[in-house]
TrEMBL record:
Molecular-function annotations in GO: 3-carboxy-cis,cis-muconate cycloisomerase activity; lyase activity
Keyword Glycosyltransferase belongs to the record: no
PANTHER family: ADENYLOSUCCINATE LYASE (PTHR43172), ADENYLOSUCCINATE LYASE C-TERMINAL DOMAIN-CONTAINING PROTEIN (PTHR43172:SF2)
UniProt-recorded name of the protein: 3-carboxy-cis,cis-muconate cycloisomerase
Annotated EC: 5.5.1.2
Alphabetic keyword roster: Isomerase, Lyase
Keyword Isomerase tagged: yes
Pfam families in the cross-refs: ADSL_C, Lyase_1
PROSITE patterns (alphabetical): FUMARATE_LYASES
Lineage of the species this protein comes from: Bacteria, Bacillati, Actinomycetota, Actinomycetes, Micrococcales
SMART domains attached to this UniProt entry: ADSL_C (SM00998)
Organism (species): Spelaeicoccus albus
EC class of the enzyme, as a word: isomerase
Superkingdom field: Bacteria
Protein family (similarity comment): Belongs to the class-II fumarase/aspartase family.
Length: 460
């Protein structure tokens, strides 16, 4: 079968959102191969734990599973012959085991099928990717919590359908971002904690393992296999129940959703004509050196745009026929890895973005003033309509929108003696609703989550 030259690895030239990141390493081809080898070694030891194969055979398998001895390019090219990369890897592994202990080579991969090992390796890669991105999301949460508290009184315009609505604060906007990240991280952490191994044999019955030992012992091997890899042992093999994969996908999309919202807001509010936010370190333009491009936000948004389609691919592949899939499973691999990379890359960028975000509170105040008091028109209707009627308030607001001075209109309507009251009515800082309480509640949730993380790390 012809093949193109694959000696030049794809390192993310056209995917700068994850190129060079820690998650790129955690999901690299080399790591996937290493994970498959680790899975084979763990399976050997699990079998030996229950006297299904000799302990010396398990030691020989582990000794031969040193990933540095394997030619990744050769394995990649040869994978086209059998339809998956484990087949050529097993061939190489058996040769190396035989070189260590000729009698042990027949025990390699005992009771397993290719899908068992590849699914397990991808769950291992997912675990590594989640560990990286959850650490970055913790940094994002820390930075957003600081922003929410520091800028709880920084009044800005809340924009609805692109227009000024009512006053809000940048602290509340930051708290909103924080809430989204907390929810996404909580979901991802739950998925990470229950990533399962796969071990079902040819058709999900564990027939070969049961024949080599007993049905009960076969299930004990499954548990030992999971324990050795630090993953969960599923109640039933999931060859054609792809819930573990779609759970990973959904967790990644929720992460890119939460981070994409932040990136969209930062990119919008950093526009020249708005100027309320700026990335701490901006990207330049090759042709326009005056520009300070929100590069991190742009890249995070690119991840958010791509992620749902990849998750859709995984969901589309989640209802395969029979007991082993014929193409659906194969469609998962690249989509899953790319989705992990996008979510992890976005998390790393967001950690840097949130830590170095520049906030211009003076510009926020000036922008609030652009509506010449109309940003509190809702308040005027609520407080003045019972006194002068809704039609009268609406008439004053319409005249102000047409260019009249709203304060003068109100003084003419209510009298100069009430000018102090009118100034209070027009003060955006006095119409912030429950913003303070919402911020406090979100920060309390953040503190609770952070304390739980610290306790977990302390126990570890």
């Amino acid at each position: 079968m012809p093949s193109a030259d694959v000696t030049s690895a794809d390192v993310g030239l056209l995917s700068p959102v994850w190129a060079g990141t820690r998650v790129a390493h955690a999901t690299s081809d080399a790591v996937v191969i290493a994970s498959m080898l680790r899975a084979e070694a763990a399976l050997g030891h699990a079998l030996a734990d229950h006297d299904v194969i000799p302990g010396t055979a398990a030691e020989a398998i582990e000794s031969a599973s040193r990933e540095g001895a394997y030619d990744m390019v050769s394995i990649t090219v040869r994978s086209r012959e059998g339809g998956n990369p484990l087949i050529p890897l097993l061939s190489d592994l058996r040769e190396r085991v035989a070189a260590v202990d000729d009698s042990a080579s027949r025990y390699v991969h005992r009771g397993a099928t290719s899908q068992d090992i590849i699914d397990t390796a991808l769950m291992m890669a997912s675990a590594g990717a989640f560990d990286v991105m959850l650490a970055d999301l913790e940094s994002v949460e820390d930075s957003l919590a600081r922003l929410a508290d520091r800028y709880r009184d920084a009044v800005m315009a809340a924009r609805t359908l692109t227009q000024h609505g009512v006053p809000t604060t940048f602290g509340l906007k930051s708290a909103g971002w924080l809430g989204g990240v907390l929810r996404a991280a909580t979901g991802a952490r739950s998925v990470r904690d229950y990533l399962p191994i796969q071990l079902g044999g040819a058709s999900g019955t564990l027939s070969a393992l049961a024949a080599a030992s007993s049905p009960g012992r076969a299930l004990e091997v499954v548990q030992s296999f999971a324990d050795r890899l630090g993953l969960a042992a599923p109640d039933v093999p999931w060859h054609t129940d792809r819930t573990p994969v779609t759970m990973v996908a959904d967790a990644c999309v929720r992460i890119t959703d939460a981070l994409g919202k932040i990136a969209t807001d930062v990119a919008t509010l950093s526009r020249t004509e708005i100027g309320e936010l700026a990335e701490g370190t901006g990207g330049g333009s090759s042709a326009m050196p005056q520009k300070r491009n929100p590069v991190r936000s742009v890249l995070i948004k690119s991840a958010h745009v791509q992620a749902p389609a990849l998750a859709a691919t995984l969901h589309a592949a989640a209802a395969p026929a029979d007991e082993r899939p014929d193409g659906d499973w194969h469609a998962e691999w690249a989509a899953l890895i790319e989705l992990l990379r996008l979510a992890g890359g976005a998390a790393e960028l967001a950690a840097d973005l949130a830590a170095h975000l520049t906030v211009d509170t003076e510009r926020m105040g000036r922008n609030v003033g652009l509506s010449r008091g109309l940003i509190v028109s809702e308040r005027l209707m609520l407080e003045l309509a019972p006194e002068i009627g809704r039609d009268a308030v609406r008439r004053l607001v319409v005249r102000a929108a047409e260019g009249a001075d709203l304060r003068r209109l109100l003084i003419a309507e209510l009298g100069t003696a009430r000018s102090g009251e009118i100034d209070d009515l027009l003060d955006p800082a006095q119409y912030l609703g429950a913003s303070e309480l919402i911020i406090d509640r979100t920060l309390a949730r953040y503190e609770s989550a952070a304390a739980a993380r610290r306790a977990t790390k302390g126990d570890a």
